[in-house]
Amino acid sequence: MSGFTRRGPFTLLGIVLALVVIAAFVLVALNAGAASSSPQLNVVVATRDLQPRLPIDASALTMRTIPVPNDYPKLYFSKLSQVQGMVPLVTIATGQAITASDIAKPSQALGAQSEYLPIPSGYVALTIPTSEEQGVANFIQPDDYISVIATVANKGKVASMTVFTNLHVIRIGTQATTSGTTAPSSTSLTVVVTECQAEFITWFLTYASLKYALESYQDYLAPGSQTKDPKCPGVASAKGVTLDAVQAAFPTLF
């Protein structure tokens, strides 16, 4: 009887410890069951860091199943096509699920977060005025290529000449009506040129008249094939334009 009394406290301690271990296992099992039964989302995530202003390529996206976040119902995307071509408004980290507040359509992104214009290295964008008669009855659209014809009056003589060809149109401007809707008549064209060409075009806009010819789509340059012009490889290559420089470059006009 005395032996049982001496062992009693240890027996009780063992029982208590056993109960604690069993309770811990039960809690772990319950938590695991709850996690496995929690709702899941199949969403679009980034496979690499995505920077603002650069359109998202399909190769930078994948689908992944994630638990429903605490901030749900924040809008996630269930198809790659819903995100491809969009512009990040913030930096999106690798593996991050993309939400509607992170991206926007290129036409809807504003200010510093808007999409970069597709200007090849060594070139600049220049906006030139247009109208129905000047710009091929408004048939010129983004990604078209145009030629520029200049007409110059000098010493009583008038001459016209094609001064530039294969100018890539990347944007068009439109004129709003008083009702707030968009009028069909374009007011400007934004083209890709070298800085040297930009100076000449600026001179012609000031001292001559310009018309544009829409080139055949079968003669368009292949995307990405516009390499640097060896005669004007960068912005620093432009040295300014005078009448003498224009006469030397386009003697037929004079």
Task: Give a written overview of the molecule.
By secondary structure, the protein is an alpha+beta fold. The protein has three helices and nine strands. The strands form three sheets. Strands 5-8-7-6-9 form a five-stranded antiparallel β-sheet. Strands 1-2 form a two-stranded antiparallel sheet. The longest helix has 36 residues, at 2-37.
Topology diagram in text:
Layout (H helix, E strand, L loop, with lengths): L1 H36 L2 E7 L14 E7 L19 E2 L14 E2 L19 E6 L15 E10 L2 E20 L5 E12 L1 H13 L1 E6 L28 H7 L5
Q: Tell me the overall shape.
A: elongated
Arithmetic mean pLDDT: 85
Structural class: alpha+beta
Characterize the main sheet: 5 strands, antiparallel
Which stretches are poorly predicted, pLDDT < 50 over at least 5 residues? none
Count of helix runs: 3
Distance between the termini: 130 Å
Strand order of the largest sheet: 5-8-7-6-9
Give helix % range: 10-25%
Tally the beta strands. 9
**What is the rounded Rg?**
33 Å
Can you write the helix and strand succession as a string?
Answer: HEEEEEEEEHEH
Strand content: 25-35%
